[in-house]
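Weekly puzzle thread! Below is a chain. First person to post its structure in token form gets bragging rights.
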Amino acid sequence: RLGARETCRVDVRVMATTHCDLEQGIRERRFREDLYYRLSIISIRIPALRDRKEEILPLAQHFVRKHATPDFPPVDVGADLKQALTAYDWPGNIRELENAIRRLLVLRRPALLAEELRQARRREFGIGESPRPQQDWLGGRAAFEALSSHATGRKTLPSRARFQDELTSDS
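Winning reply:
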């Protein structure tokens, strides 16, 4: 206890995670060597999701089942979205994948998510143009409408078709 004068014995186990290379941190004097040896009794190294492409689709299906509700039922992850999911590098790892699937369940537009992933990949490699600001806004508008309808109990989104038409038009 903080400020206590007598010793209080405890039996604890500490589990810690990091995305940093702690051994390099020790060499660069950014991490204490003694603390490293106290913590590293058992080390489990899990590669980034980009290095485990075969796990992306099963994880996506898991998150579809996990987050589906009666108001946001499961969405079919078609071939186009499957290709985009596996081609993307997932810098945010599993959390980013889970949030993308949550977005899919709300928006119910696999083609929109597939295009967003392709655009992000193009930006990462400096290929082509960034998406038009209107596209980003329309995706946000669709999310706003979906969440608003959920909160107010409406089951339909009357203006979704209009925004889909604007999203896919060349003007």
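Puzzle host: Confirmed. Bonus trivia for everyone else. The chain has eight helices and no strands.
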